[in-house]
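Lab notebook: predicted structure, single chain.

Context: the supervisor wants predicted structures on file for every construct in the current expression panel, including those that have not yet been purified. This is the next one on the list. No modifications to the sequence; it matches the entry in the shared construct table.
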Amino acid sequence: MRLSVAFLAATFGLALLVGCQEPQAKEEPQQEASMYSEPLLEVDDSDTMPPPPPEPAARIHVVQKDDTLFKLARQYYDGDQSKWKAIWEANMDKIPDKDKLKPGTELVIP
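Prediction complete. Output recorded below exactly as produced.
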């Protein structure tokens, strides 16, 4: 009887030991590469984009009698006389006094 008790104890202990082992992880089958796993390609769309508009050509105005910077700004900038300073800054070397324009002077209108 001692032998059968010892046998049962050993069998029971072995069963506990085998049952308590951590299950081994099953190897996952390797997945095929997904089309989303690859890095996105950068697209050079410079040949499909229209070129930027060209800079407007500078205009030349020959000062007439009674011309003022305000009058020229209204004429060239759709009535916006506040743009007089842009004309003055572009022609500072030709305009000694911004309040008096000399007839015949060629001014660049930016």
